[in-house]
Protein 1
Amino acid sequence: MDSAAFDWYTRTCEKLDAIERACFLWGREEGIDRPGRRHLLHAAKGYPDVPTMFDQFLDVWHEKMPPYKWSRETMRRIEFSDQSDYLDFITINLMPLREAARLKLITARVEQHDPNIALFNLLHPIIANRAWDFYVTNHFRQAVETSVTAVFDYIRARTQSQLDGQALVTEVFKLEGAKLILSTLDTESGRSEQKGFINIFVGAYVGIRNPLAHTVINGLTQKEAAEHMVLASLLASKVDKAILVED
């Protein structure tokens, strides 16, 4: 983990959390647009100064991020001059800022582990999310086993099936009554593709996942693990693009 990036992410989230709490306070108060009311709440009740808090957030934000491109409406909103601005900021602006910070942290992690990030760019998001941390910490057996398992979890999620392994594949992709169709079953080439990938899916489970699940020995090189993860990503992409047949 890039400690500097993680520290920045933590401080960014803390600033956003504090702004969110402050916006809730101001947003639920009645009549803050009346003359003197805002000053009274700030001075007597200690309500925080949200515009100042936002400026402090931007100081942290710009340590890692380029200047944010605000819309004209957002530029007006972050002045927090109207009562509606507080809750609007929470519902409209807060989540994109959190997500941008999270993606920045993920990018920093990837660049630290693999400066060329060629492999990461080849991986299906489901595989990267489940197996990448194993791969970059040299747990190659777990990375590959997790990758194949993730594919089958994805098939179950798309089809709501409770089956697993070979039984899952043959039921979901069968030529008559398939739940997932890779391209078409109306042509010979389409049926051949469906049959071929049934064998590949089953082979991945029986020939890759099962042996790895029953051993504690690593037994895989980094290159071999990468090759297996790319294969799992291909299968996950096939599940992505498959046509779901509703019951």
Protein 2
Amino acid sequence: MKKRLFYLSMVFVMTLFSACGNGKKGVFTPTSSGRAYEILVVVDPGLWERPAGRALYDVLDTDVPGLPQSERSFRIMYTSPANYDSTLKLIRNIIIVEVNKDLYTQPKFKYAKDVYAAPQLILTIQAPDEASFEKFVEENKQVIIDFFTHAEMNRQISVLKDKHSDYISTKVKSMFDCDVWVPGELTSTKQGENFFWAGTNAATGDQNFVIYSYPYTDKDTFTKEYFVQKRDSVMKVNIPGAREGMYMETDSLMTDVRPISVQGDYALEARGLWRVKGDYMGGPYVSHARLDKSNQRIIVSEIFVYSPDKLKRNLVRQMEASLYTLKLPNSKHGGAEIPLGVTKQDTTKIIK
């Protein structure tokens, strides 16, 4: 009887491992390794040193926009295909470079999810030759950056789904009829007229969330000039400084805007620097301005960080994920996950 149970147990375990090896997730799928915004590039060493490889390196090595100091978008590691072993295959973010004129006629992207570990994304860049690879990478610079940035934000959103501030969610729902997930560490709050703020109130590494609304009456609403003017008027009233005459304002010269999609709807993203008038305080912020069609109003959700003399990339991106969870009234969008912008492939084709 004991022998039979032993053999049955072994068959069960082998079946689970087999499922993992076929791209199906069993209970023994390992947890991925590596830090957030860390990428492993699997590439031929010679190609990596030539212009094609340098083009990819330069894309990954770009600065994060909207920060007061230079911080790279990603931490880059690389290995040759021959050294791409079982340990390296557990890293959370991987780029595989495949240049082969016999296999490919044009450059393209493909990605696979949770192949060797979870959470994990493997982006494959295929091209027939190095010249077309270099051109393709340069033309799709933002696609590559957004792919891994959004992947990390989606991981943060998954965390927020199960671990967010119920108090803030309830408050935002009652004030704006919107749903949002914000980290539970934001325990300080303030309410104003059509305005709500939550923050950590930490001496350094301070993270903040703001949401406010105003009527949609101007066709120029989704312009940089209108956004900055409206933001300054709201913050002057609701985010005062330590002394009279001090208040938060926008550094308009260091603010960039662009149209993005949030849960399938248009949004104006503003990214730049804030400062306190009459003081030395300041830092980065990111805002989403969206149209609530059912109520003909603009909903602005924003995060900002105060962390003097400290790195801010991860603080900003961690909070920025919350902006993508904001669901407007009567929204029919099913989830908060950010689209990655690249075609997915069958994971069974990538396993070796």
